[in-house]
Amino acid sequence: MSDRIKVIPHYLLPKQGLTRFAGRVAGHQGGQYTTTMIRWFVGQFGVNMEEAANPDIASYASFNEFFTRPLRLGVRPLAKADFVCPVDGAISQFGAIDDDQIFQAKGHKFSTTALVGGDATLAAQFQHGSFANLYLSPKDYHRLHMPCDGRLTRMIYVPGALFSVSPTAARGIPGLFARNERVVCVFDSKVHGSFVLTLVGATIVGSMATVWHGLVNPPRPGVLKEWRYDDQNIVLKKGDEMGRFLLGSTIVMLFKKDTIDFNAEWAPERPVRLGEAMGNKPAAKRA
Q1: Does the annotation count 100 as an active-site position?
Q2: 145 catalytic, yes or no?
Q3: Contact 48, 75 (CB under 8 A)
Q4: Which of 10, 145, 194, 207 is catalytic?
Q5: What average pLDDT does range 253-277 have in this prediction?
Q6: DSSP secondary structure string, 126-138?
Q7: In the predicted model, is pLDDT for residue 14 greater than 60?
Q8: Residue 28: burial class (beta carbons within 10 Å; 0-12, 13-18, 19+)
Q9: Which of 10, 82, 88, 194 does the annotation list as catalytic?
Q10: Which of 164, 194, 207, 249 is catalytic?
Q11: How many CB atoms neighbour CB 222 within 10 A?
């Protein structure tokens, strides 16, 4: 069965209603019920609680508190690289941006302009640059970290659909990551120039949050919103936490042309871990 046929149910599901319901359930403090649900989830998806700062399942008051649990200090050391992987997850796709087109899966691309909410001036900075799409499955650690040092300049909330972002959905739904709800975070690096981290929402992703703003959604106003930080000095170092998902999703990164040479060991569908080497500056720039 082709992936286009497999994703037909994704178009029919009441995605907004499911997401609102999941958000209420995940935020509810249900005592033993909550503990039972977490215990089932850990067993069903093979969550490694030994890596958690708090491995005691019964101590989490809500599913959201469990889902966004921090890791034990030292379990994700940072590689000696210019860019480190910002999440635990798997590589969906990565590589060069073809003019302004980002490769999603065989037969599917989307534009940088669409991804960032229609801002052609912002998107133009990444023409012929590089991208990486990383998928976070339910079992993964769901805090997002910085791939390199950066000063926050803008955040854009882009309303959109709430399709699943599973590998099957990525192969079957055209323009998926530029259709779903997303939070576009724009940073500037003294060494690497401007770069973008985009948090992509999905079915039953109750919310997305950043460390400087808190919850970005809900509410879901249905219109594009933007925050500017030019008058603030919000600087995050490589490896610092920058945000989190409540339930699994995808992060899309954009870098300018001649900014990064990706890790030679990276390949589509390869598992990745926070802090591993993602890439380095091109040799010519290092010289």
Answers
A1: no
A2: yes
A3: no
A4: 145
A5: 96
A6: TTT-EEEEEE--T
A7: no
A8: middle
A9: 88
A10: 249
A11: 8
